[in-house]
Design brief:
Elements: E1 4-9, E2 28-29, E3 32-33, H1 34-37, H2 40-45, H3 47-63, H4 68-75, E4 81-86, H5 92-96, E5 101-103, E6 106-113, E7 120-122, E8 139-143, H6 153-161, E9 165-169, E10 190-194, E11 209-211, H7 215-232
Parallel strand pairs: 1-4, 1-9, 4-5, 9-10, 10-11
Antiparallel strand pairs: 2-3, 6-7, 6-8
Bound molecules: adenosine-5-diphosphoribose (APR).
Adenosine-5-diphosphoribose binds next to loops.
Length: 233
């Protein structure tokens, strides 16, 4: 039977595609205080700033390409039943060919109705405050901001619980509840953590296999071992 591999990816996954991580830049995100551009308070205070910020991120994403790490993960679908749970709002996992991706923190290429959050639209151009959906509703980026609920969390927890192998990759493990997901892995699961600058908390996990490398290189290093184990465990 095919083994289950679950990947928990963070901003470091897309770093080699030229998209900046959050906390490597010293608390600033592309020159902004994170709370100004990624919180309901920031949105109420200055929606134009928030729209402009995500418009820039969307433009940047459309110019970026999946990197070696995204590609290796897509290839691993040949050997495992895979789910990728990502904190990233980009679509680089999908563009590399990964088919089963849960976006914990929303998606940059989607927007939603302010009145009816279930009404979500694909969106690849700039979002303006005057834009409306067919129902006439005003729109906001389909992003989970600080302080907001994480609707995909329950589904993600159930997926992690079932995993035979977990790869945590490119995340500082500072943002909750996402950072707590690895705690749901079974004691029998093999868990890797790939990050060139691993979060100190990782040292407290006894059986964690820490690979202090960038995403692409780290995945290249463990790929064969993982496939071999997947066949025998
Ligand atoms: N390959 C792998 N990891 C890398 C690379 C790379 N090339 N470059 C940097 N990293 C690592 C850093 O060492 C760091 O541990 O990526 C991690 C990025 O951490 P954060 O910037 O904190 O990103 P993340 O953990 O994804 O943040 C979580 O915070 O602002 C919110 O909602 C946003 O989803 C985001 C959440």
């Amino acid at each position: 039977m095919e083994k289950k591999l679950v990947v928990l990816s963070g901003a470091g996954m897309s770093a080699e595609s030229g998209i900046n991580t959050f906390r490597d830049a010293g608390g600033l995100w592309e020159g902004h205080d994170v709370m100004e551009v990624a919180s309901p308070e920031g949105w109420h205070k200055n929606p134009e700033l928030v729209l402009d910020f995500y418009n820039q991120r969307r433009k940047q994403l459309l110019e970026a390409k999946p990197n070696l790490g995204h590609q290796i993960l897509a290839d691993l679908q040949n050997d495992f039943k895979m789910t990728i749970i990502t904190q990233n709002v980009d679509d680089l996992h999908e563009r590399a060919g990964s088919q089963n991706v849960i976006h914990l923190h929303g998606e940059l290429l989607k927007v939603r109705s302010l009145q009816t959050p279930e009404l979500v639209l694909d969106w690849t151009t700039d979002l303006k405050s005057s834009d409306r959906n067919e129902q006439g509703d005003a729109l906001r980026p389909h992003i989970v901001w600080f302080g907001e609920a994480v609707p995909e969390m329950e589904r993600a927890i159930n997926v992690v619980k079932e995993a035979d192998f977990v790869i945590v990759i490119g995340t500082s493990l500072q943002v909750y509840p996402a950072a707590s997901l690895m705690d749901y892995a079974s004691d029998l699961a093999v868990v890797y953590y790939i990050d060139p600058n691993p979060a100190p908390v990782a040292a407290t996990y006894q059986h964690l296999k820490i690979i202090p490398e960038k995403a692409g290189r780290g995945l290249q290093m463990i790929k064969e071992e993982l496939i071999n184990w997947g066949q025998i465990v």
